[in-house]
Amino acid sequence: MAKKAMINKELKRAKLAAAGKYPTVRLHNRCSICGRPHGFHRDFGLCRICLRKMAHQGLLPGVTKASW
Fold it and tell me: How many other β-carbons are positioned within 10 Å of the β-carbon of residue 9?
């Protein structure tokens, strides 16, 4: 529940920042699934952990496991 609250808080702050009532410098990118603020990939909007899980399950189109 605490993570959902942080995600909702960041969404509210983003709306306020778009309206010019909150500084955009203070916004954090958060994972849309778990709310983790670190290890965030902008292309997918996910943290590294959720990105890895979804890639292994085949839920991200165009993402394949690297092997060399």
Answer: 13
